[in-house]
Design goal:
There is one protein chain. By secondary structure, the chain is α/β, with parallel strands linked by helices. It has one domain: Divalent-metal-dependent TIM barrel enzymes (TIM Barrel). Helices cover 43% and strands 14% of the residues. Strands 1-2-3-4-5-6-7-8 form an 8-stranded parallel beta barrel, surrounded by 5 helices. Strand 2, helix 3 and strand 3 form a beta-alpha-beta unit. It starts with a helix and ends with a helix. The mean pLDDT is 96. This is Xylose isomerase. Keywords: Isomerase. GO terms for molecular function: isomerase activity.
């Protein structure tokens, strides 16, 4: 039996009056979408999203133009994902800088850029070089640049992220805390001080529900995930409360993923739930909770 939206919205919310300037934007992910760029943007607009978050199509001018055309046609804003994959720090940084520069200078100005930053095995200084560059470019462009709390990347765990937060006061985060639930095999109750510190730096949220054994529950509407859902809502509530008090923009990507992030049935690899439907559910739940 699915939990009613009204019940979840009313439970444990923080009553904060929004100051002038507070704005809530929901972004759709094309991760797992099988249609064209135009199809994706059309469906996102139809569901009520204000924008989309997609990987910057580096070195593909045709894909860039298709994206610009679809964004304009369907009147959507955009946030770009940006990163690099090289296993060595120097070429990784060079590619990262090239991709970031191009995304910052795209034809349609992004609302933000979300970075898959560095590697979990790079040294502190090797990863910090990425932070220093993004801080500089964000100031020059006026476009916010965030670093995602993501497995395999620079901010893969809570205690490691804390070191970067404490030593880099201008670091701003995309919170995908589902990864930390998985990494630490818990709902993080034993790291409250570190989590609270991180929440103060969050400017963008990836609203996927993780649990101690994985980065994504099979369906957040299922009653067996109530504790995990409530834990994530409590973390997000604190971010939204700060944004409301300060009168700032808040962007949220609904990012439940497809197979194999989505659990599947053996042999057939059929997803056990509807990815698109779950993401729309999360958007509606959080819009009513945080509007």
């Amino acid at each position: 039996m699915f939990s009613p939206l009204t019940e979840l919205i009313a439970k444990n919310t923080i009553d904060v009056k929004a100051a002038i300037g507070y704005e809530l934007l929901f972004m759709a992910t094309d991760w797992g979408f099988s249609g064209s760029t135009d199809d994706f943007c059309r469906e996102a607009k139809k569901e009520g999203y204000e924008g989309v978050e997609v990987w910057w199509p580096a070195d593909n001018t045709a894909a860039q133009q298709l994206l610009y055309d679809a964004l304009k046609k369907h009147q959507l804003q955009v946030g770009f994902l940006c990163g690099a994959g090289q296993p060595k720090a120097k070429p990784h940084l060079e590619t990262f800088m090239k991709n970031l520069d191009a995304a910052l200078n795209s034809t349609q100005k992004p609302v933000y850029i979300n970075c898959h930053s560095g590697k979990d095995y790079f040294s502190y200084d090797e990863n910090k070089a990425i932070i220093d560059y993004t801080t500089k470019k964000s100031k020059e462009s006026g476009i916010p640049v965030y670093h995602e709390t993501h497995r395999g990347r620079m901010l893969y765990s809570a205690p490691v992220a804390r070191q970067f937060i404490e030593k880099n006061p201008e670091l701003r985060l995309t919170l995908d805390i589902s990864h930390w639930c998985n990494v630490h095999e818990s709902l993080l109750a034993d790291q409250q001080e570190t989590i609270d510190l991180a929440l103060e730096r969050v400017s963008h949220i990836h609203s996927r529900i993780g649990h101690p054994q994985g980065p994504q529950v099979n369906d957040p509407r299922a009653p067996e995930w109530e504790n995990a859902l409530q834990a994530h809502l409590a973390w997000w509530d604190k971010v939204i409360a700060r944004k409301k008090r300060n009168g700032e923009r808040m962007t949220i990507l609904t990012e439940f993923g497809p197979a194999d992030y989505m659990p599947t049935l053996p042999f057939t690899r059929q997803p056990v739930a509807d990815q698109w439907g779950i993401n729309v559910y999360m958007m509606n739940l959080l819009r009513k909770r945080y509007q």
